[in-house]
Design goal:
With 77 residues, the chain is mainly alpha-helical. The chain is built from three helices and no strands.
Length: 77
Amino acid sequence: MSFMSGLVVFTIAWWICFFAVLPIGVRGQWEDGSTIEGTEEAAPKEPMLKKKALWATIGAAVITGIAAIIVPRLLAQ
């Protein structure tokens, strides 16, 4: 797999992983009764985006590594 192919696989895997972990652990403002005036009640109180971006990066690296091992072997046949 070339560098650009790996970069494309990593980018696609990162976004898929990011959207997969995005709803994990999110509590809405209405659940705590701390709705800020002017915001939606269902808006997350603490979205933890840095933590989720880190998990998405780890997941994308694993997926890219697996693809880098499997794809050349499939294409060699």
